[in-house]
Amino acid sequence: MEPDGKQEAVKAIDNCLRQRLLRSTKVMFFFHRHAHHKDKLGRRSLDLKGAISMAADLARHFGLPDVIFRNLPETFSSFDFTGSGMLCLEETRVMVKKTLLQWHWALEGPAANFDSEIATCTLEDGGYSVAREMGRGGQGIMYLAKKKTEESSPWYSYFSTCGSQARATYCIKFYSKKNANAGGLQEILEEFHRMKEFDNEHVARTFEAFHDQDFVYLVNEPYFGGDFTKLAKRAYDKGVEMREGWWQAIFRQCLAGVEYLHREAQMHCDIKEANLMIRYNDDFTKPEVVLIDFGLAQSISVKVTGLSGTPGQAEMIDE
């Protein structure tokens, strides 16, 4: 794509992404224009031909380049979460959004996005104070931090419903810029953009990201119950009887989290004991499970080659 055409394409894609309500409305409008079928659940749906026509109308409306949806014949089935061979309205909305995001990243590049998409701010200027280290990973260090949560904060109503352990506390992941190249910074941004869109009780929640001269910071919801490598011992120490029903409830939550990710066209790609957390440590009779660490996550519409996951883990998948 020529430089002038690339700039215009980025501008059009960015405009479409920012106008969420208008985009959603237009997707619904063009969907109903071309949805001439019903899936096995009785919902109006698009077949591949209808999806291509719908995407063309949407591209013309927002002034998007013709190439944006050129891979739709290959990616169409990736968004068919029910296996019906068609896309319902919600699946169509996800398809449009994910396609736009992927093209935005491909055309804009990591360096341009990094400085423009997250704020420049020190930890102290952001109002955070570190309480203690929570853990270390291959990409960064996690710290428990505190911040005064005012009633005017957009997260006040959320934290007011949380347990006492989580209220006004955060898990902040520190990424050292000394150890990150442009590709590494892009991966951090991609992880942030994925996680800030998630809204499910079994998937990790991210609130904001910012950076200073030395670090990139990801501000996440904290989890205090440890991961699955410690689950059985902690439950035993609390006197919990780990019967079959207890384990069933736990794995049902794991599957609910994975199901949500797949509905959002995301694959975790690194599900293992260390990435399955328990929300609180004060009650192991009914543990609340949360999936964390989306550094290896992939959009379902992205073709992944080779093995994905942690070497030596049974969950490594060849996609």
Automatic annotation (TrEMBL):
GO MF annotation: an example: ATP binding
Record Gene3D superfamilies: Phosphorylase Kinase, domain 1, Transferase(Phosphotransferase) domain 1
PROSITE patterns referenced in this protein's UniProt entry, alphabetically: PROTEIN_KINASE_DOM (PS50011)
Pfam families: Pkinase
Domain of life: Eukaryota
Domain Protein kinase: 128-319
Protein name: Acetyl-CoA carboxylase
Stretches of the chain forming a coiled coil according to its record: none
